[in-house]
Every structure is written in C-alpha cells, then in structure tokens.
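ESCALATION

Customer reports they have been waiting on this structure for their group meeting. Please prioritize. Original submission:
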Amino acid sequence: MHQATTNPVAATTSPAPPRRKSGRKAFWLKQTYLWHWVSSAISLVGLLLFAITGITLNHAGEIESTPRVNTAAAALPAPLLAQLSSSDQTARPIPTPVARWIEDETGLSPRGNAEWSEGEVYVALPRPGGDGWVAIDKASGAITAEVTDRGWISWLNDLHKGRNTGTAWKWFLDIFSGACVIFALTGFVLLQIHAKKRPSTWPLVALGLAIPTIITLFFIH
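Update from on-call: job pushed to the front of the queue and completed.
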C-alpha cells in the first residue's frame, strides 16, 4: 500500500489573510488623524479670531466707537524741500532723506508711493483700524500729518478682511485658509469612518448644508 503524501505546493498556496490591505488602511487612517490634529492646531487661534470678528463685523453698525484723530505739523528745511522741486507728477516715493526727517518729526513713515501735484506732495498711509496721511506744501515746506484710530474692534475687523494689512498678513491668510481646508476635509473623512456607529452623523451634516442654503435662497433679497 502506498502512503498518502501531502503536496507542499498546495499547502503553501492557501489564501493569505489580507494583511497588506488592512495595513494600507491603517496607514491612511493614521495619516488622516495626524493631518487633522496638525491642521487644527495651526488654525485654532485663527479660527477663534475669525469667528469672533465674524460676530463683530455682523454687528458693526451696533458697536459704537469714537475715532481718535491725532495731528502733527512741521516745516521741512530748505535743503530737503529742494528735493521736492521736481515738476514730474508721476506717482513715486518721496526721497529717502525727506521721508526719514518726516518720520523723526511726526512719528509717521511716508515710505509708500506719493501723489505729486504742482503745489503739493500727498502720501496716503492707510492702516488696519484707522487711516493716516502726510501732506507737504512744495512752496513753503509746511507739513501736515494726521492719524485716525477707530479702536481695537475696527482693527480686528480689518484683520478679518485683510484691509491694508500688508504682504505678511496676506501670506498668513493664505496659509491659514489652507490649514482650514485640510482640517475640514480630514474631518469629513473621519466622519465617514465613524458614521456607522453614529447614525446622526449624516443628518447633522445635511442640516449644516441645508440651513445656509435655505437662508440664501429664501431670506436674502
């Protein structure tokens, strides 16, 4: 009698557990959690700022503020005044020595492009939460400067809008917005993962979509 022998090839071709697939899923789940909390950490302070200023902007007409206006006056020395004698009315910065002298005398830095006319040089100095300007009489050298401060709420509102905030704040807004997008998308993925155990997930998501849609369609004229 012949004894039955086992086929070593058949023994090794039995279906293997889907470890590769489960390992890939665990990797992407871990990455989703990682990017979710990193983006939330980056955007946390910005989200609080924009949520609070969203309320203050929505009620801007109800929040009373009294602008504070500070003025300054000076007379430009003749050697510096001579540097403004050009009749060219092209928008351009005033000479650096003149700008430095005005900054020392008034505390304002007229470094931006100036508006040149026949009798005056005018430099607008807009800023978050206020305004400012410097005017120079080309005949007499008389300098008039003014700064308007509308308060810290107006300052925060202008940060929200990116009004007169400069390049650095513009870059911050772009990076912050990107972090918010990542935070929202990874949050959506996590909602999908946990939705089976939380039946109210998608009704709440639908409600979050329905409310602004209904208001936009029926209550905004």
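Sent to customer with the following note: The first helix runs from residue 8 to 12.
Escalation resolved.
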